[in-house]
Specification:
The chain is of the alpha/beta class. The protein has one domain: 3-Layer(aba) Sandwich (Rossmann fold), CATH 3.40.50. The chain contains eleven helices and eight strands. An eight-stranded mixed sheet has the order 1-7-8-6-5-2-3-4, sandwiched between helices. The protein is globular. The protein starts with a helix and ends with a strand.
Length: 281
Protein backbone atom coordinates (compact mmCIF):
# COMPACT_ATOMS: atom_id res chain seq x y z
CA UNK A 1 0.00 0.00 0.00
CA UNK A 2 2.82 2.41 0.88
CA UNK A 3 4.51 1.62 -2.43
CA UNK A 4 1.28 2.28 -4.36
CA UNK A 5 0.80 5.62 -2.63
CA UNK A 6 4.39 6.58 -3.37
CA UNK A 7 3.97 5.71 -7.04
CA UNK A 8 0.67 7.60 -7.21
CA UNK A 9 2.27 10.66 -5.61
CA UNK A 10 5.19 10.51 -8.03
CA UNK A 11 2.85 10.27 -11.00
CA UNK A 12 0.83 13.21 -9.71
CA UNK A 13 3.95 15.32 -9.35
CA UNK A 14 5.07 14.29 -12.83
CA UNK A 15 1.67 15.17 -14.30
CA UNK A 16 1.63 18.55 -12.58
CA UNK A 17 5.15 19.24 -13.79
CA UNK A 18 4.16 18.35 -17.34
CA UNK A 19 1.16 20.71 -17.23
CA UNK A 20 3.27 23.55 -15.82
CA UNK A 21 5.98 22.99 -18.43
CA UNK A 22 3.43 22.88 -21.25
CA UNK A 23 1.82 26.10 -20.04
CA UNK A 24 5.21 27.79 -19.85
CA UNK A 25 6.16 26.65 -23.34
CA UNK A 26 2.83 27.85 -24.69
CA UNK A 27 3.44 31.28 -23.17
CA UNK A 28 6.75 31.56 -25.05
CA UNK A 29 4.84 31.74 -28.33
CA UNK A 30 2.25 34.30 -27.22
CA UNK A 31 2.17 38.09 -27.00
CA UNK A 32 0.32 39.27 -23.91
CA UNK A 33 -0.26 42.77 -25.29
CA UNK A 34 -1.62 41.64 -28.65
CA UNK A 35 -5.30 41.92 -29.56
CA UNK A 36 -6.59 38.46 -30.42
CA UNK A 37 -8.64 38.32 -33.61
CA UNK A 38 -9.96 35.37 -35.58
CA UNK A 39 -8.99 36.59 -39.05
CA UNK A 40 -6.57 39.27 -40.21
CA UNK A 41 -8.28 39.89 -43.56
CA UNK A 42 -11.72 39.61 -42.00
CA UNK A 43 -10.94 41.97 -39.14
CA UNK A 44 -9.53 44.59 -41.48
CA UNK A 45 -12.12 44.04 -44.20
CA UNK A 46 -9.47 43.32 -46.83
CA UNK A 47 -10.71 41.61 -49.99
CA UNK A 48 -7.44 41.55 -51.94
CA UNK A 49 -4.31 40.34 -50.14
CA UNK A 50 -0.77 40.29 -51.50
CA UNK A 51 2.08 38.48 -49.75
CA UNK A 52 5.57 39.75 -50.59
CA UNK A 53 8.50 37.59 -49.42
CA UNK A 54 12.15 36.92 -50.19
CA UNK A 55 12.42 33.12 -50.41
CA UNK A 56 10.33 30.01 -50.98
CA UNK A 57 9.08 28.87 -47.54
CA UNK A 58 9.06 32.44 -46.10
CA UNK A 59 5.32 32.43 -46.72
CA UNK A 60 4.89 29.68 -44.12
CA UNK A 61 5.29 32.36 -41.46
CA UNK A 62 2.07 33.97 -42.72
CA UNK A 63 0.42 30.84 -44.13
CA UNK A 64 -2.57 31.09 -41.80
CA UNK A 65 -3.41 34.62 -42.93
CA UNK A 66 -2.90 33.77 -46.59
CA UNK A 67 -5.01 30.61 -46.44
CA UNK A 68 -7.75 32.44 -44.57
CA UNK A 69 -7.79 35.32 -47.06
CA UNK A 70 -7.91 32.90 -50.01
CA UNK A 71 -10.86 31.02 -48.52
CA UNK A 72 -13.07 34.01 -47.72
CA UNK A 73 -16.04 34.61 -50.03
CA UNK A 74 -15.32 37.48 -52.39
CA UNK A 75 -11.68 37.61 -51.34
CA UNK A 76 -8.50 36.86 -53.27
CA UNK A 77 -4.91 36.21 -52.17
CA UNK A 78 -1.76 36.42 -54.27
CA UNK A 79 1.97 36.24 -53.59
CA UNK A 80 5.33 37.43 -54.87
CA UNK A 81 8.53 35.56 -53.99
CA UNK A 82 11.62 37.52 -54.99
CA UNK A 83 14.17 34.68 -55.23
CA UNK A 84 14.17 30.93 -55.84
CA UNK A 85 16.08 30.25 -52.62
CA UNK A 86 19.02 28.59 -54.33
CA UNK A 87 21.40 29.64 -51.54
CA UNK A 88 19.44 27.68 -48.93
CA UNK A 89 20.69 24.60 -47.07
CA UNK A 90 20.28 21.66 -49.45
CA UNK A 91 18.99 18.28 -48.29
CA UNK A 92 20.83 15.68 -50.34
CA UNK A 93 17.99 13.22 -49.83
CA UNK A 94 15.73 15.54 -51.83
CA UNK A 95 17.83 17.01 -54.63
CA UNK A 96 21.28 17.85 -55.92
CA UNK A 97 22.66 21.18 -54.63
CA UNK A 98 22.72 22.62 -58.14
CA UNK A 99 19.00 21.88 -58.50
CA UNK A 100 17.94 23.47 -55.21
CA UNK A 101 16.63 26.68 -56.77
CA UNK A 102 14.51 24.75 -59.24
CA UNK A 103 13.16 22.46 -56.53
CA UNK A 104 12.33 25.30 -54.14
CA UNK A 105 10.66 27.19 -56.98
CA UNK A 106 8.40 24.21 -57.51
CA UNK A 107 7.78 23.81 -53.78
CA UNK A 108 6.57 27.38 -53.33
CA UNK A 109 4.25 27.09 -56.34
CA UNK A 110 2.80 23.87 -54.94
CA UNK A 111 2.35 25.39 -51.51
CA UNK A 112 0.69 28.50 -52.92
CA UNK A 113 -1.74 26.28 -54.82
CA UNK A 114 -2.54 24.40 -51.62
CA UNK A 115 -3.13 27.71 -49.81
CA UNK A 116 -5.60 28.69 -52.52
CA UNK A 117 -3.63 31.60 -53.95
CA UNK A 118 -5.07 32.93 -57.18
CA UNK A 119 -1.71 33.98 -58.59
CA UNK A 120 1.98 33.61 -57.77
CA UNK A 121 5.07 35.31 -59.11
CA UNK A 122 8.50 33.83 -58.42
CA UNK A 123 11.21 36.21 -59.52
CA UNK A 124 14.77 35.34 -60.43
CA UNK A 125 16.79 37.66 -58.19
CA UNK A 126 19.85 35.82 -56.82
CA UNK A 127 19.27 34.52 -53.32
CA UNK A 128 21.21 36.70 -50.89
CA UNK A 129 21.41 39.69 -53.25
CA UNK A 130 18.27 41.68 -52.48
CA UNK A 131 20.08 44.44 -50.61
CA UNK A 132 22.14 45.14 -53.74
CA UNK A 133 19.06 44.92 -55.97
CA UNK A 134 16.78 47.05 -53.80
CA UNK A 135 16.00 49.79 -56.31
CA UNK A 136 15.01 47.38 -59.08
CA UNK A 137 12.99 45.18 -56.71
CA UNK A 138 11.11 48.24 -55.46
CA UNK A 139 10.22 49.34 -59.01
CA UNK A 140 8.95 45.87 -59.89
CA UNK A 141 6.86 45.85 -56.73
CA UNK A 142 5.37 49.23 -57.63
CA UNK A 143 4.33 47.79 -60.99
CA UNK A 144 2.75 44.71 -59.41
CA UNK A 145 0.98 46.63 -56.65
CA UNK A 146 -0.55 48.92 -59.26
CA UNK A 147 -1.52 45.92 -61.37
CA UNK A 148 -2.88 43.65 -58.62
CA UNK A 149 -4.33 46.51 -56.51
CA UNK A 150 -4.29 44.81 -53.09
CA UNK A 151 -6.09 46.16 -50.02
CA UNK A 152 -3.61 44.43 -47.71
CA UNK A 153 0.08 43.67 -48.19
CA UNK A 154 1.77 41.13 -45.90
CA UNK A 155 5.55 41.17 -45.68
CA UNK A 156 8.45 41.35 -43.21
CA UNK A 157 9.25 44.13 -40.79
CA UNK A 158 12.11 46.01 -42.53
CA UNK A 159 14.01 46.45 -39.26
CA UNK A 160 13.89 42.91 -37.85
CA UNK A 161 13.03 40.80 -40.89
CA UNK A 162 11.56 38.15 -38.52
CA UNK A 163 14.96 36.38 -38.44
CA UNK A 164 17.20 39.39 -39.15
CA UNK A 165 18.05 37.82 -42.51
CA UNK A 166 19.30 40.59 -44.86
CA UNK A 167 16.97 39.44 -47.65
CA UNK A 168 13.98 39.48 -45.28
CA UNK A 169 14.76 43.01 -44.17
CA UNK A 170 15.39 44.11 -47.75
CA UNK A 171 12.11 42.76 -49.13
CA UNK A 172 10.22 44.28 -46.19
CA UNK A 173 11.84 47.63 -46.89
CA UNK A 174 11.19 47.36 -50.62
CA UNK A 175 7.53 46.42 -50.07
CA UNK A 176 7.07 49.30 -47.62
CA UNK A 177 8.58 51.82 -50.01
CA UNK A 178 6.80 50.38 -53.04
CA UNK A 179 3.44 50.65 -51.30
CA UNK A 180 4.05 54.37 -50.76
CA UNK A 181 5.37 55.01 -54.27
CA UNK A 182 2.56 53.02 -55.91
CA UNK A 183 0.06 55.47 -54.40
CA UNK A 184 1.90 58.53 -55.74
CA UNK A 185 0.30 59.65 -59.05
CA UNK A 186 3.43 61.59 -59.97
CA UNK A 187 5.83 58.65 -59.56
CA UNK A 188 6.55 56.64 -62.71
CA UNK A 189 3.15 56.72 -64.43
CA UNK A 190 4.61 54.23 -66.92
CA UNK A 191 4.36 51.59 -64.16
CA UNK A 192 0.57 51.78 -64.08
CA UNK A 193 -2.26 53.77 -62.57
CA UNK A 194 -1.65 54.74 -58.93
CA UNK A 195 -3.03 52.51 -56.21
CA UNK A 196 -2.82 52.76 -52.43
CA UNK A 197 -2.94 49.54 -50.44
CA UNK A 198 -4.89 50.49 -47.33
CA UNK A 199 -3.00 48.19 -44.94
CA UNK A 200 0.56 46.95 -44.62
CA UNK A 201 1.03 44.00 -42.25
CA UNK A 202 4.38 42.84 -40.88
CA UNK A 203 4.50 39.22 -39.72
CA UNK A 204 6.45 39.12 -36.46
CA UNK A 205 8.25 36.54 -34.34
CA UNK A 206 7.10 35.94 -30.72
CA UNK A 207 9.48 37.94 -28.55
CA UNK A 208 9.72 35.58 -25.57
CA UNK A 209 10.92 32.60 -27.58
CA UNK A 210 13.63 34.76 -29.15
CA UNK A 211 14.61 36.27 -25.81
CA UNK A 212 14.88 32.93 -24.02
CA UNK A 213 16.15 30.66 -26.79
CA UNK A 214 17.36 32.86 -29.64
CA UNK A 215 20.78 33.78 -28.27
CA UNK A 216 22.46 36.95 -29.53
CA UNK A 217 20.51 36.87 -32.80
CA UNK A 218 17.23 36.59 -30.90
CA UNK A 219 18.12 39.59 -28.76
CA UNK A 220 18.97 41.58 -31.87
CA UNK A 221 15.66 40.67 -33.48
CA UNK A 222 13.48 41.75 -30.58
CA UNK A 223 15.47 44.96 -30.13
CA UNK A 224 14.60 45.95 -33.71
CA UNK A 225 11.12 44.47 -34.06
CA UNK A 226 8.11 46.77 -34.05
CA UNK A 227 5.35 46.15 -31.45
CA UNK A 228 2.81 43.42 -32.13
CA UNK A 229 -0.78 44.52 -32.61
CA UNK A 230 -2.70 41.36 -33.53
CA UNK A 231 -2.49 37.67 -32.61
CA UNK A 232 -4.33 35.36 -35.02
CA UNK A 233 -4.91 31.66 -34.28
CA UNK A 234 -3.68 29.17 -36.88
CA UNK A 235 -4.57 25.52 -37.39
CA UNK A 236 -1.28 23.67 -36.90
CA UNK A 237 -2.12 21.45 -39.88
CA UNK A 238 -1.63 24.43 -42.19
CA UNK A 239 1.94 24.77 -40.96
CA UNK A 240 2.88 21.09 -40.89
CA UNK A 241 1.40 20.57 -44.37
CA UNK A 242 3.48 23.50 -45.57
CA UNK A 243 6.70 21.89 -44.39
CA UNK A 244 5.76 18.58 -45.98
CA UNK A 245 5.58 20.50 -49.27
CA UNK A 246 8.81 22.45 -48.65
CA UNK A 247 10.58 19.15 -48.22
CA UNK A 248 14.00 20.42 -49.28
CA UNK A 249 14.14 22.68 -46.19
CA UNK A 250 12.26 20.54 -43.68
CA UNK A 251 15.29 18.82 -42.18
CA UNK A 252 17.21 22.06 -41.71
CA UNK A 253 14.24 23.77 -40.08
CA UNK A 254 13.70 20.87 -37.69
CA UNK A 255 17.35 21.03 -36.66
CA UNK A 256 17.08 24.78 -36.01
CA UNK A 257 14.04 24.36 -33.75
CA UNK A 258 15.38 21.11 -32.21
CA UNK A 259 11.89 19.63 -32.07
CA UNK A 260 9.46 17.77 -34.32
CA UNK A 261 7.50 20.42 -36.21
CA UNK A 262 4.12 18.94 -35.23
CA UNK A 263 5.15 19.49 -31.60
CA UNK A 264 6.45 22.99 -32.32
CA UNK A 265 3.16 24.05 -33.87
CA UNK A 266 1.20 22.55 -31.01
CA UNK A 267 2.51 25.52 -29.03
CA UNK A 268 3.25 27.94 -31.88
CA UNK A 269 -0.41 28.21 -32.83
CA UNK A 270 -0.70 31.94 -33.54
CA UNK A 271 0.63 34.38 -36.10
CA UNK A 272 1.52 37.88 -34.93
CA UNK A 273 1.23 41.08 -36.92
CA UNK A 274 1.92 44.78 -36.77
CA UNK A 275 -0.24 46.99 -39.00
CA UNK A 276 0.35 50.24 -40.82
CA UNK A 277 -2.77 51.87 -42.21
CA UNK A 278 -2.85 54.36 -45.08
CA UNK A 279 -2.28 57.85 -43.77
CA UNK A 280 -0.83 56.64 -40.45
CA UNK A 281 2.83 56.31 -41.42
Amino acid sequence: MIMKRAIAAALLVLAMGTVVTAAWLDSQFEEADAEEISSLAGHLGAQSVLGIFAHPDDEILAAGALADAASRAGSVARMITATRGEAGIPDDSVCRPEDLGLVRHAEVLKHGYQLGLERQLVWQYPDGSLVAQLEQVTLELVREIRSLRPDLIITFDPESGYTFHPDHRAIGGAATKARRLAADPVFRPDLGAPHEARWLAFVLVPRRIMQNFGGERGTEIIQHQVPVRYAVPVDQRIKTRAWSIHESQYGYTRRVWRAPLWLLYWFFDQEHYAIEEAGSA
